[in-house]
Amino acid sequence: MDKPGQFGLDIHNNYVWGQASPVQYPQEQQPDYRYRVTPEFSYGLTPNVELGLYLPLGTIADRQFRMDGVKARIKYIAPRPANQDWYWGANFEIGAVRPSLDVNPWNAELKGIAGWRHGPWDLAVNANLDWVVSGPHSEAPSLQLATKASYKVSNNLALGVESYNGVGDFHALKTVLSPAGQGHSTFLTADTSLGKWDLNLGIGRGYSGEPDQWIFKFIVSVPIDD
Q1: Could you tell me if 39 and 11 are in contact, meaning their C-beta atoms sit under 8 angstroms apart?
Q2: Contacts of 185 (CB under 8 A, 6+ apart)
Q3: Whole-angstrom Cα distance, residue 42 to residue 198?
Q4: pLDDT tens-digit profile of 50-80?
Q5: pLDDT in tens, 118-175
Q6: What CATH number should be reported for the domain whose range is 7-222?
């Protein structure tokens, strides 16, 4: 979280390496052998509220760069005593992307955030509820669970495991979930820093319905307001 009045910048990068994925609709852009970069600008509004803007979503393939959309978010982390290990919060995100990324251009996500930090251990779980705001193809809201466990092996290095698991779709907003379309991916990660620059590195693989094969990702936190 940025401090009140502070600006931040995280640059998200990923590259998918694997076999061609099945095309779900005519305009869909296959992720295989593509490099995607997304600058995420943030601003601390209060000690517990942060605003963010993904601008732009970008894709590089065949030596060509194209802008694929923009998204905005607001994050809340509940206040807690300094000696409290656990925390919770929420994040709301809304944005528009090109049809090459999603058949429905306008989408939103509500993320429930929970975590626990104690000594060298850091555990976190996010419940992500995604739904269509506007578009030609009606879809039920879908749920994904994202988890991370990391252990700080030194003052400047933490090693961990991240997992992203599609639970399914809510049909008619009922609590029954459909297993159709589930996807799962797991990453080995490393968190470190170079001076004031923070780095999150990961290599992972999609399986059980997830079309992406090997995925390389890294996030660079740029100290633009330190």
Answers
A1: yes
A2: 163, 164, 204, 205, 206, 207, 210, 212, 215
A3: 15
A4: 999 998 666 666 666 677 789 999 999 999 9
A5: 999 999 999 999 999 987 777 888 899 999 999 999 999 999 999 998 887 766 445 4
A6: 2.40.160.40
